[in-house]
C-alpha cells in the first residue's frame, strides 16, 4: 500500500508551519501593512526565501525592477526543478498549472523522491494533493505568524537576521548537494567586488551579473577546449 | 490619504512583480525548454548558479546587518553567522540553525552588547 498524501507531507508540515510563522512575524513586526497581507503572499507567491527577502525589500522601498531581478534570480533554482520534471508532469491536464505553481524546494524533493506504484493518473492526483497540502501548511503558518506579530507586543529588533540565517542554511544545503566549493567562492567573491565598487542599491544586481558572466565565460572556455580537442583528433587521426 | 493610496499602490505592484518573477522561474522550463533539457549550457548553469546565488545573498545581507565601525568590526553579525554555520553542520535542522543565529543577533542588538 502506498502511504497517503497526508502522511508523506507530515515532515513538510513541521517545516512549513514554523517557517511560515517566522515569515508572518517578520512581516507584521517590520512593516506597517495589515497582517493578513502575510498569508495573502503565502497564497499568491508561495516561496519561502522570496517572501522573507520581500520583507527587506518592502522595508527599503526597493524599485520594482530591482525587486523583479532579485526575485527571479533568488528563485532561479526553480528553473532547474522544472527541467527535471518536464516528463513527469506530462498529461496532468488541468492540474498541471497548479503543480508548476506549487513547485517549492520541499515539494520538489518530495515529488522526485517518493515511490510510484499506482497508475500514472492516480500518481498525478497524489502529486496534486501533496502540492495542495504543502501550500495549505505554508499559508496557515504565514497567517498565524502575521496575526501573532500583529497582536502580541514584543521587542523584535534584530529579528530580520532570520533572512541571513536562512540564506546561510540554503548555501550549506547547496554545497552538500553539490560537493564542490567553487560556486560558493564565486558567489562570495562577486558579492565582495560588488560591495567594494557599487553603491548599496546596485550591489545585489551587480553581484548577480558578475556570477552569471563568470559562469558563461567558464562554459565557453570549457566548450572551446572540447571543440579544439575534437578538431585536433580529426587532423591528427 | 494620498500617502496611504501610494503605499497601497506600491504594495500591490510589489506583490504583482514578486508573483510574476517567482511564477516565471517555475513555468519557463515547461514553456520554452521542453526540447532543450540536455543543452550543456543549461546543465552548467543548473549545476553552479543556485549555489553561487545563495552564497552571494548570504554575504551581501550579512555585511548589511553588521556594524563595521570600531571596535565591533562586524562581530555583531559575524558571530551569529558563524553560529548558524556550526549548528547547521552539527544538526542539519534548518529551523534550529536559523534560531541559533537569530536569537543571539536579537540579544546583541537589543542589549547593545557591542
How would you sum up this structure, described in words?
The complex is a heterodimer of chains A (237) and B (114). By secondary structure, chain A is an all-alpha fold. Chain A folds into 2 domains: 5-178, no CATH class; 180-237. Helices cover 78% and strands 0% of the residues of chain A. Chain A is built from 11 helices and no strands. In chain A, helix 1 (5-30) runs parallel beside helix 8 (120-151). The longest helix of chain A has 37 residues, at 200-236. The termini of chain A are far apart. The mean pLDDT of chain A is 87. By secondary structure, chain B is mostly helical. Chain B has a domain at 57-114. Helices cover 81% and strands 0% of the residues of chain B. Chain B is built from 4 helices and no strands. Chain B has helices at residues 2-32, 40-65, 75-91, 94-111. In chain B, helix 3 (75-91) runs antiparallel to helix 4 (94-111). The radius of gyration of chain B is 20 Å and the shape is extended. The model of chain B has no long low-confidence stretch (mean pLDDT 87). At the A-B interface, helix 1, helix 2, helix 3, helix 4 and helix 5 of A face helix 1, helix 2, helix 3 and helix 4 of B.
Amino acid at each position: 500500500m502506498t502511504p497517503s498524501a497526508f502522511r508523506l507531507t507530515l515532515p513538510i508540515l513541521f517545516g512549513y508551519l514554523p517557517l511560515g510563522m517566522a515569515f508572518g512575524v517578520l512581516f507584521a513586526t517590520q512593516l506597517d501593512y495589515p497582517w493578513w497581507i502575510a498569508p495573502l503572499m503565502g497564497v499568491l507567491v508561495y516561496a519561502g526565501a522570496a517572501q522573507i527577502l520581500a520583507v527587506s525589500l518592502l522595508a527599503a522601498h526597493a524599485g520594482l525592477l530591482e525587486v523583479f531581478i532579485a526575485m527571479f534570480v533568488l528563485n532561479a533554482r526553480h528553473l532547474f526543478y522544472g527541467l527535471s520534471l518536464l516528463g513527469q508532469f506530462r498529461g496532468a491536464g488541468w492540474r498541471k498549472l497548479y503543480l508548476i505553481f506549487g513547485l517549492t524546494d520541499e515539494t520538489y524533493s518530495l515529488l522526485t523522491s517518493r515511490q510510484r506504484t499506482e497508475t500514472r493518473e492516480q500518481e498525478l492526483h497524489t502529486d496534486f494533493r501533496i502540492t495542495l497540502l504543502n501550500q495549505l501548511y505554508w499559508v496557515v503558518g504565514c497567517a498565524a505568524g502575521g496575526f501573532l506579530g500583529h497582536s502580541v507586543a514584543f521587542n523584535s529588533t534584530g529579528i530580520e537576521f532570520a533572512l541571513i540565517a536562512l540564506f546561510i542554511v540554503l548555501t550549506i544545503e547547496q554545497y552538500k548537494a553539490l560537493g564542490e566549493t567553487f560556486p560558493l567562492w564565486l558567489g562570495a567573491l562577486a558579492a565582495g567586488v560588488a560591495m567594494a565598487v557599487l553603491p548599496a542599491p546596485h550591489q545585489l544586481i551587480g553581484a548577480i551579473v558578475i556570477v552569471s558572466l563568470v559562469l558563461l565565460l567558464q562554459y565557453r572556455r570549457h566548450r572551446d577546449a572540447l571543440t579544439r580537442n575534437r578538431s585536433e583528433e580529426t587532423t591528427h587521426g | 490619504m494620498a500617502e496611504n493610496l501610494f503605499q497601497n499602490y506600491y504594495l500591490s505592484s510589489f506583490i504583482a512583480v514578486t508573483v510574476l518573477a517567482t511564477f516565471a522561474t517555475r513555468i519557463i522550463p515547461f514553456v520554452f525548454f521542453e526540447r532543450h533539457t540536455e543543452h550543456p549550457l543549461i546543465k552548467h548553469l543548473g549545476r553552479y548558479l543556485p549555489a553561487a546565488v545563495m552564497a552571494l545573498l548570504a554575504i551581501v545581507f550579512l555585511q548589511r546587518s553588521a556594524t563595521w565601525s570600531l571596535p565591533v568590526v562586524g562581530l555583531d553579525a559575524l558571530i551569529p553567522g558563524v553560529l548558524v554555520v556550526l549548528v547547521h553542520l552539527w544538526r542539519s535542522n534548518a529551523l534550529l540553525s536559523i534560531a541559533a543565529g537569530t536569537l543571539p543577533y536579537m540579544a546583541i542588538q537589543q542589549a547593545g552588547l557591542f
